[in-house]
## 1
Amino acid sequence: MNQPIRVTVWNEYRHEKNDKQISRIYPDGIHNAIGTHLKYQTDFEVRTATLDEPEHGLTTEVLTDTDVLIWWGHAAHADVQDEVVDRIHERVLNGMGLICLHSAHYSKIFMKLMGTSCSLKWRESGEKERIWVVAPGHPIAKGLDEHFEISHAEMYGEPFDIPEPDTLVFISWFPGGEVFRSGCCFYRGQGKVFYFRPGHETHPIYYDAVVLRVISNAVRWSAPVNGPKPTFGRVQPLESS
Ligand code: ZN
């Protein structure tokens, strides 16, 4: 059997401790809601890490042992140390997969990897979200129907100020009339980044079977492939003339 994919689920883990309504939805934190599901996948080895642990639980050792990092943050992006962000950035460029969920569009690591403001429109109204698969042949779309719905979501709307994704897998539609690029793949160095929109903290979205399937698919897609190590700089020709 192949080596398992080593997944680290990172959560800011503040809302669940400070807000009774949110702690009722995610009593063990969003990281454990996602992590518990991922542990059922026999090809994954799962651990969690949170902001208030030393070095946010993302020491060099942990990151070296991580194939795919899943990131959920919202209210405390600024509390993430730049040194840790740089460490994650380097790991992504060297092949680690990164999955940024929902409000992680404003996380330091996502903004650093994108190089743009990553701003968007939003409205907290609990409206329905219909998510269309626009790249049905992509590994992240495996096993999905043509579209799926989330009954109560926070709206995010275009324009979403990101670079053009290398592959756009999902587009969301909202009853208010907005649309949003909600599943975006990017290559950065040897690494792969997936942005996935669903997941506001006041809605039980990380228990949704389809959402969890997308996250599992994204873990498999973004896992390192151990391709050739690139070399740079001056070289001699391979052919003698
Ligand atoms: Zn939100």
Note: The mean pLDDT is 97.
## 2
Amino acid sequence: KILVIGAGGQIGGELTLALRKKYGNEQVLASDLREQSPLIEGTGPFTTLDALNKEAMQEIVKEHGITQIYHLAAVLSAVGEKQPLMAWNINMTALLNVLEIAREEKLKRVYWPSSIAVFGPSSPKKDCPQTTIVEPSTVYGISKYAGESWCNYYFEKYGVDVRSLRYPGIISYKTPPGGGTTDYAIDIFHSALKAGSYNCFLKEDTYLPMMYMEDAIRATLELMDAPLENIKTHRSYNLSAISFSPEEIAAEIKKHIPDFTIQYQPDFRQAIADTWPASIDDSEARQDWNWQPEFDLAKMTADMLTNLKG
Ligand code: VAH
């Protein structure tokens, strides 16, 4: 039985739906700090859970016979830069609670996302490799990089089968974005349909690694299904699909909404985006567990607009 922590979030909600589709609704217990989100309401069991409360988490694991945890609760990059120590505390305490419980309750498997935000200005900008100079310069990146080492520690020392992906920016239409820097690429669609224009908080040539939610969810399930011997790292796998800039996605949207216009007013999030690579090399994921993305910019844009038009 699976516990999803952070089921109210952008990825947690869609992962809950995908896991329920795969294993059956009753096999997936969704949880979040806040009340159940409309996206998952009525699709299966839910409980509120503060991921900082280890006793409460352990109680839920024992009461429900949980054997796997997907831990998707975190404070993202933009919010993290506004409240550094709160973000560090939440991101690390929640992960360590999950790892300790996985050890004590001998859980079968744990999933925890890292991010391309672990890379800083000293990492290669183009086709950034999985193993390279990694000097995170955002609180979010610092917490994700530290978390990767903790995951490896619990695997090496206690045999906890924890697996992780460095997600790029993820684009989706089912839930509102939550405090990220890459979320301009979600906002742009809502604004294009509502106002026919968008005021972008990043510069037009800011290339960032991105991925459509369908690809991110499938990558997560494929990683978790892979035989343990195929998993060559219990830190985290680089994961990639597309890289684009605001002006490129704007041009793609214009193919569907010819009168769409975009203005650029970079804010504090530009400084965050400037520290990240423009593109990612995910050859280890392709070699070890046959990762292969399906959505390119054109296909993603068409799918987003079709679904947001309703
Ligand atoms: C953020 N969407 O912007 C997240 C992600 C790589 C970016 O980690 O913080």
Note: The first strand starts at residue 2 and ends at 5.
